[in-house]
Amino acid sequence: KAGVTQTPRYLIKTRGQQVTLSCSPISGHRSVSWYQQTPGQGLQFLFEYFSETQRNKGNFPGRFSGRQFSNSRSEMNVSTLELGDSALYLCASRGLDRDEQFFGPGTRLTVL
Amino acid sequence: QQQVKQSPQSLIVQKGGISIINCAYENTAFDYFPWYQQFPGKGPALLIAIRPDVSEKKEGRFTISFNKSAKQFSLHIMDSQPGDSATYFCAARGVYGGATNKLIFGTGTLLAVQP
Description:
The complex is a heterodimer.
Chain A: E1 5-7, E2 10-13, E3 19-24, E4 31-38, E5 42-50, E6 53-57, E7 64-68, E8 74-78, E9 87-94, E10 101-103, E11 107-111
Chain B: E1 4-7, E2 10-14, E3 19-25, E4 30-38, E5 45-50, E6 56-59, E7 62-67, E8 72-77, E9 86-94, E10 103-105, E11 109-114
Parallel strand pairs in B: 2-11
Antiparallel strand pairs in B: 1-3, 3-8, 4-5, 4-9, 6-7, 7-8, 9-10, 9-11
């Protein structure tokens, strides 16, 4: 069974630009969560989607948004990038077993 | 607002020794406490997890001890091996309202096991 895949793996953008990150969950998983990982703040929850609906949202500004498609694939968008948005963005999918979340390898975003 | 505090920040253990990482939480509305292991360049991987109605769970060399009254839980790695060198994160999962299914992570512990 293929794991969670995230594209692209690395991304370099400049301040003010916007970026879209993609996540394909494990086949059959309908829940996708996004996390931001930085050395200073650690792992922080961004949002969770289930069956194309956002179920939970973390404490991030409105510049961070996401969506989920009917095939459970999810995208995350960050508009008007700031230097502080440089981070590893992780996607995690969850199946019927509510407990285990499977993380992807992440997208390393660098904002210059 | 940090709700899960993890210590130590880094840990050096000799091969064959015991690695102990501690976490404490501040909110009782958690129903699941996983530990994740992360290697450089990889996403976190679930190592072991426990529910608050259990005081201890063991899987191979890894054991979680859970103290509900003290709101503390710890990870013990027995017979630590160089391959265990990684960053370890504790987490707690919310159970009510907007925190449902949301994992709150500790700040991580960088473990180095010396051969």
